Amino acid sequence: MNVIRSLQDQLDEANKLRTEQLSTIETSAGNFALELALNSLEAHISDLENQLRKEKEKRQKEVLELRLEGSIAQFGSLPLSVLAGIAHYISGALHAASARIRTGREPKGRIAESIMSSLNLRLVGIEPGSSRLLITADTSPNLFGRSMTEESLRGLFNLLTAQEESSLTDSVQILGARSTHNVSSLLKYLTKNNLALDARWTSPTGEQYGWQATTYDITKLASSLDMLQIQKPERIKISGEVVLLSEKGRLDLKDDRECTHRCNFAHFLIGQVKKLHLGDRITCAINKTTIYNSMTDKEKVTLDLVEIHQNQEET
Length: 315
Known about the structure:
By secondary structure, this protein is of the alpha+beta class.
């Protein structure tokens, strides 16, 4: 069995159990046995995260395979200008997505050198047949075993293979406006050069991702992305009670009006989120982004945590 998959499954189960135990402790204050069991479980979770990080470090590289088909992609070669254009949009998409996943903010200006060096995107070969590009990126897991490279690639393939408007919008929300713009530009660039695409990636957990697209498929997806309007994020504040915590980047708050707000949090907030408990009252600075689909006349609002402050009376 895939070791990373096994560790991830164990970690998911342990985090689920932790959430249940936290809920039980909230209704059984002062139960020393429960608190002892929770401390033991949290030590187990920390150990699993450490094992997961080490296994992903052993993996070292993520390999993205792009097979291009068209009149200009024959005998394992491509015009250098076309190769440069494809590389520009792919690196732009993955760098911007990784910046958003790590920081929770839409990147502005030049991507931070620390993010680009962590990804370490490289073209490692062009192989014969239909032009086959092999691109590598460092897996680079953080202390909790999560990899922004892995999450960026998963978000990219989820966008490429989205079958419904809702799943496409979800993927755009994960990647962000700048990354999505680069994906859209890549698709239009492939169409301009009459190139079909077969993209493949095997995740650290062994999942096989692929998108085999004709020029028609590429044009259709580009048109769908053109229908999405991503508004500039609005900074808001929400105070409320923590009612859900997920190690996979989700925190739910219930405000004083009993409205529940589903929030996403980036990698840099993981350590802070781990210190929270269900029932804690916190105040959060949040980026509120609205994605509007002009084709369906529907919009989706996403909330990304930027800052978390635990209310003084709860500390």
